[in-house]
Every structure is written in structure tokens, then in C-alpha cells.
Amino acid sequence: MANETPNHEYIEVSDDAKDGTYHGCAPIMSRIVLSASVPFIVLTVISFCCEWEIMRWVWLGLSLIIILFGFYIRVYLEKDIREDFVETPSPRLREAQRAKTFLGYDFGNDFKLRMTGSHDYSEILLDFEEDAFRPLGEFCRSQKSYKIQTSTPDEITITEIKHHIVVKEKVFEFEEELTKTGFTKTESFYDPSLSKKYNLWIKYLLQCEVDYENMTLKMFYVGW
Asked: Binning pLDDT at 50, 70 and 90, where does residue 21 land?
């Protein structure tokens, strides 16, 4: 289908979100933290048995701190995650929100969303009908082309908007990159410690492509 990444299989994401199926990472993190307290609990018991006056209180204090931290992760952080989940229960809309935030534009909820990915690559592809796509197309056409570079001691960021997209298509027996009319917004992140003046060392990038002809929006993340 339109603007798919070659050699990738896509899965359609629906609005279904069954109650009780989402737990986030808080339970796993809390188990890890609580497991880390076991050696200190053992040392506490040994210290009391051996009557180590100072060390037994040190080990006991560390054990209690780790245990309390584990329960904090489980109770409070999981509560915050669940509240975010309840606010937007649809997996399809949660995935699309990433593209809305990146573009700075709410293109509505009338679209089909598919996902794909591989090692260090994650992509969502939205397919629109003509009426639903028209406002998004008008927004993209109204944006000015630019390229901005900002630098910090830890990272170099380049943000760029271009009024074309690059797609990979088969021409005879070969795969070629073709330039088509569309909209591309890219944020590239580089490591200044590895970069040279004319050779930036990229760490990862976010890119959003809007294909006017096929009425699709593709957003993907690539990391190195």
C-alpha cells in the first residue's frame, strides 16, 4: 500500500483496550527493587545474630529504604501511569498522539493506523480518507521550509522542514529513492563528543512524512 517501508510487515492498531490488560512497567520495576533488598535483609539478620552494633543498623536502614522505594514505585508511579492510560484508552489514538505532538497539529481521529518496526526502528503509518486528510494537507502546505541547529554540551539537534518526501519504489528489478511532492519534518540528534565540524555523528532521529498523493502520514524513529 501507499508509502509503506519496503520489507516490513504492518499490523493494524485498533481502538480496543481490554480492562485489566495494562499494567505498565511499574510492577516489574518494583519487583526488581524489592529483590535488590534481599541481600541487605540477609546482612541485617547476620548483623543482629553476630551483634554487630553499628553495621546492623546500617544494613537495616538500607533495607528499609529500598523496600519503601519499591512500594513507592508500585503504588504511586503505577497510579500515574494508569491515569494516563484511562485518559486515552484507545491504543490507536495513543500512537497517533505522538505524530500530533511532533507536528504541533491535531489532525483529528478519522484514520486507520498501522505499525511496524525492527531493530532500532519504529514506525506508525496513518491512512486517511480525502475529507479527513484535507485539513492536514492544508496545514502542511502552510508551513515554511527551514533548518535550525541548536547545540548543547551533550547534544546537537537539527530540526528541518522540507516540502517533499523521499519514497523507495521498485523500478524494473531495482529499488530506487524517488522524490515526491509532500511534507517532511525531521529532528536529528547528534553526539558532539564524536562529531567533527563537517561530519556529525548521529544518535537518533524522528521523522514525519505526509504524502499528499496517497493521503498518508508516516512517522518513524531510528536509533544507532
From this structure: very low
pTM of the model: 0.66
Whole-angstrom distance, CA of residue 195 vs CA of residue 61: 45
**What 8-state DSSP symbol labels residue 10?**
-
Domain definitions of the chain by residue range: 26-87, 90-223
Q: List the one residue out of 136, 130, 65, 78 whose CA is nearest residue 105.
A: 136
Interior angle at CA 210, CA 126 and CA 176, nearest 5 = 100
Positive or negative, the Cα torsion across 189, 191, 196, 200? negative
The SS3 call for residue 107 is: coil
Q: Which of 103, 81, 62 is nearest to 23 (CA)?
A: 81
Most confident of 56-70, 116-130, 135-149: 135-149
